[in-house]
Write a structure and sequence with these properties.
2 domains; rod-shaped; 4 helices; Immunoglobulin-like; five-stranded antiparallel beta sheet; alpha+beta
Length: 244
């Protein structure tokens, strides 16, 4: 068995003096195994003389036939070009996918979450819209309906209070207004004043007017994302209506 070093192997492949010529493989008993170290990494491999003979023929063809060398070079160039195109296509796909994921993350990081909250106490009534999300709430439209008619403000549904009593707070149209995260807009508020004697009458009239109403809020975020409208019934105010 012949042992070839890295240098000897190179000489063998290039058809140098150390390369065996015109080997006869008709007699299998004459076959020899060559043992060599691949890249000096300690990995050993056995191969037959045919491998070296094929390599010698291939290298001899490249060295002696210009047309064959050009053809092989053209094929190699085409393969490299196709590989480069494939890698570029994959890179574009990965980039587009990463941009979509990043945009989705950005939208979620500034997503608004509207909530209409109600307060119904013996000495106070209140309805407000609050933003519980992580980004600004942009109100596009608010509709307040009883199933037959609709208005854009709750105050338009309220009765005239006895004795010319004023509302503590209420909002006009809130379309195109924004609410920061954790902030709110009071839609209507009625709170008993110190020494007030006729507050119960005003409170019960408001409860009766509020109980059949439904609020629908159309909203978006800073990316103009389309969300389903937020809907809230004010029937909570009707639980004491039959008691009055």
């Amino acid at each position: 068995m012949a042992v070839y070093s890295t240098t000897a192997r190179s000489t063998l492949f290039m058809g140098g003096e150390d390369c065996p010529k015109n080997l006869d493989f008709s007699d299998k008993s004459k076959k020899q195994n060559y043992h060599f170290d691949v890249l000096g990494l300690g990995y050993s491999k056995h191969t037959t003389d045919e491998f070296f003979q094929y390599m010698n023929y291939f290298l001899h063809l490249i060295q002696t036939d210009a047309n064959a060398a050009n053809a092989i070079a053209a094929i190699a160039s085409a393969i490299m070009a196709a590989l480069a195109l494939f890698i570029s296509t994959v890179s574009v796909f990965v980039s587009v996918r990463a941009l979509k994921i990043q945009r989705h993350h950005n939208v979620l990081s500034v997503c608004p979450l509207p909530e209409v909250t109600v307060a119904d106490y013996e000495n106070s009534l209140r309805v407000k819209i609050r933003n519980n999300g992580s980004g600004p709430l942009l109100i596009k439209e608010m509709e307040v309906t009883n199933g037959n008619e609709s208005h854009s403000r709750i105050i338009e549904w309220m009765p005239i209070l006895p004795g010319g009593r004023y509302w503590n707070d209420y909002s006009q149209r809130i379309e195109n207004r924004s609410i920061l995260p954790g902030d709110n807009i009071v839609l209507i508020e009625l709170t008993e004043g110190e020494g007030e004697t006729d507050f119960a009458t005003c409170r019960d009239l408001c409860r009766k007017a509020l109980s059949p109403l439904i609020i629908s809020v159309t909203f978006t975020d800073v990316y103009q994302t389309k969300f389903q409208p937020y809907v809230k019934s004010l029937d909570w105010f009707g639980r004491h209506v039959n008691d009055t």
